[in-house]
Design a protein that fits this description.
Elements lengths: L20 H13 L3 E6 L10 H11 L1 E6 L4 H13 L4 E5 L13 H9 L4 E10 L7 H18 L3 E6 L2 H9 L8 E3 L6 H9 L3 E4 L12 H6 L8 E3 L17 H5 L3 H10 L10 H12 L3 H16 L3
Parallel strand pairs: 1-2, 2-3, 3-4, 4-5, 5-6, 6-7, 7-8
Helix pairs in contact: 1-12, 3-4, 4-5, 5-6, 11-12
Length: 318
Amino acid sequence: MADSKGKSGNNPEKIADGISELKIKQIEDEVASSYLLVDIGANLTNSKYSRDLDSVVERAKDAGVKKIMVTGASVQCSKEALRLTRLYPGMLYSSAGIHPHDAKTWTDDCYDIIKELASNPECVAIGECGLDFNRNFSPQDVQMEVFEKQVQLACEVGKPLFLHERDAHDDMVRILGKFKDRMPPAVLHCFTGTSAQALKYLEMGLYIGLTGFLWKDKSDDGVRSILEKGLIPLDRLLIETDAPFMYPNVRGSKIPANIKQALSDRSLSFLNRYCTFQRNEPCALPVIVEMIAAYMKRPVEEVAMATTINAIKLFGFS
């Protein structure tokens, strides 16, 4: 099992002084009666939520999701994400950054705009930023240049990084390595890589964010295998829906019977009633944490509590 403290000094205590024993006990008590979850990545600025965002947020609360980080993926998206935090104070938080797909839109003033957005207490992370060499919607050299600027910005403002990586592991490691002595904590969002890649990110001190991608992963060395082998320490695990994407199709034949049996009726009721391939919602998070716990062969309450405490430490949620 990887050293959960990592080797790069990316200590979440740089962001938050930690959680008191009393606070942990309060979280344990709430988890014991119902899930107390944090969705670290939901794209609630997406137009698919434009007509009923109030209901989406209310359903998330009913499902046990107490905090949601609204992902910023462009300058305009980051501004809108911050605006939403003011409409749902204490429930929604935001990130600010430029997704690798949109790296080609970077201009000279983007650095200062993102820095200004990040100065707001509701904005708790820099990103979504990183590298995507799978689709290459922006040229790879541009992606790397824009990503490095955003890592530099995170170091300057002292806020965590919300990272995206597809088929670009080596370059991601190389760029992050340039900042290893001063980089703030970071999470590799929606991880879909191999065990070797996961272990490398953990060695660097990163958190690993998992989504409903689990339902369709059948690779010999993918996320399911990583969980079954216990390679991700609980104190480095975070959960997210990536809504409206990454719908967890728990009815699919790819999910083993024992995993399906571990899903509670209550969690399934939110998923089946309100979520589809076309529009996933944060209320699907209970099903995701139940799947993760089942693959890890750990009590779901333990996984729920650990991921919530990790999110509070990393992002400094109130």
